[in-house]
Amino acid sequence: MGRSLQTLGSPLAQPRRQLELLDEHTDASFQERLEVERLWPLNADTVDVLQLNVGRVCNQTCRHCHVDAGPDRREQMSHEVFEDCLDALERIPSIATVDITGGAPEMNPSFRWFVERCRSLGRHVMDRCNLTIIETKTHADLPEFLAGHQVEVVASLPHYRPLATDAQRGDGVFDKSLAALKKLNAVGYADDPALRLSLVTNPAGAFLPGDQAALEKEWKRELLRRYGIRFNSLFTITNMPIARFLDWLHDSDNLSDYMARLLGAFNPGAVSGVMCRSMLSVGYDGRLYDCDFNQMLELELSEGMPRHIRDLDADSVKQRAVRVHQHCFGCTAGLGSSCGGATV
Amino acid sequence: MSETYYKRDDLNRFPEIGKNAPDLAAKFFDWYGAVFQDGALSAREKSLIALAVAHAVQCPYCIDAYSRDALEKGSDADQMTEAVHVAAAIRGGASLVHGMQMRGHVEKLSM
């Protein structure tokens, strides 16, 4: 089992050093690029989705993880902050979706209670699941729980073959992921229209994801043919040059080329669909960010915006100016990238 | 002149080939782009064919471009290695099957 950058004492465990390194290896500024395209300032449009990162604890130590999550991390959202989130949801009925991520969000002791409360408030709930958590003894009943509350499962699987999956996520992860997917299918996921199962693929290396629609077609065919597994949608997500993926890019001497690749693939048409324009991200301590990536880089909401979920009101953050840095080129490359996959 | 015949950056500068024959270059790049679109073969399958051919014609630019492209199209290293073996098998087989011409000559010339 690998260890987090934080445990290793790596300088790249510090967000400030990550931002410096991105500046050193990027030939253009994201803000200036938007200015050239007359797309600056980048303002949010609405807040449809509240994404909670409920902790850095995870049963895996994936090599590309922008959260630097792992079994050696201890940060977890407290019950009190979860209650602050529920209060915000009650105050702001226009937030239709609660998107729960981590680490492995299911490892947070308040996860199931919070899901139940969100569903009782009538909110759509998404669980960003690493799949292998379902194969642990303490979470073996997770498929039944998630199905029972009609939680949309967004599950990570880099490839329908083992090579890339195990290279990115650890030896044996592919087999466990297939076992977990079969259990999700067995309780109705992807067969019952109320139980959506989406898969997420990140490239296992310093390259961009392929065409989402084409890959989805192939994945559906191959996962069914090889393993009898069904799913609803495939999301292609570009790896963000943050935390462990940044560390790997730097160590493998790929960083400058990768940033040049993101810059070269900059697509002005992808800017309007970036996820920060329609979501708000909450850290384990309740602090607010434009997205999970900004959260990991400790780029809090812009000046004058509320700092904490308990201070969130319905209108103040809707039209806010989004904070950007060079990592944002990851969301605007090619066909775009967001938590819901390609944006173009 | 440069120290080496092959320069990595030449791949990125490939569009400059149109400087002295823009109409011909435009025709080539339009056709090239169309060839690799999804059709009866998927774009991923075409990328693997391109990777294999790149090895058969031993073009370092094409190997660079289609190693990345095949990964981005969703192929993995096992699949790409098998594609290169296909190219190698055809190249090797092409040499070997010409041995039948050699045998024909030998049979004709020998007692």
Kindly describe this structure.
The complex is a heterodimer of chains A (344) and B (111). Chain A is of the alpha/beta class. Chain A is globular. Chain A has twelve helices and eight strands. Chain A has one domain: Aldolase class I (TIM Barrel), CATH 3.20.20.70. Chain A is 33% helix and 10% strand. Chain B is mostly helical and 111 residues long. Chain B has a domain of 70 residues: AhpD-like, CATH 1.20.1290. Chain B contains six helices and no strands. In chain B, α3 packs across α5. The radius of gyration of chain B is 19 Å and the shape is extended. The model of chain B has no long low-confidence stretch (mean pLDDT 94). Classes of the chains: A alpha/beta (344), B mainly alpha (111). At the A-B interface, α9 of A face α4 and α5 of B.
Short description:
Helices cover 33% and strands 10% of the residues of chain A. Chain A has 344 residues and is of the alpha/beta class. The longest helix of chain B has 21 residues, at 77-97.
Number of distinct beta strands of chain B: 0
- The secondary structure category of chain B is mainly alpha
Unreliable parts of chain A: none
Terminal CA distance of chain B: 56 Å
Descriptors:
heterodimer, A: 344 residues, TIM Barrel, 8-stranded mixed β-sheet, 8 strands, 10% strand, B: 111 residues, AhpD-like, 6 helices
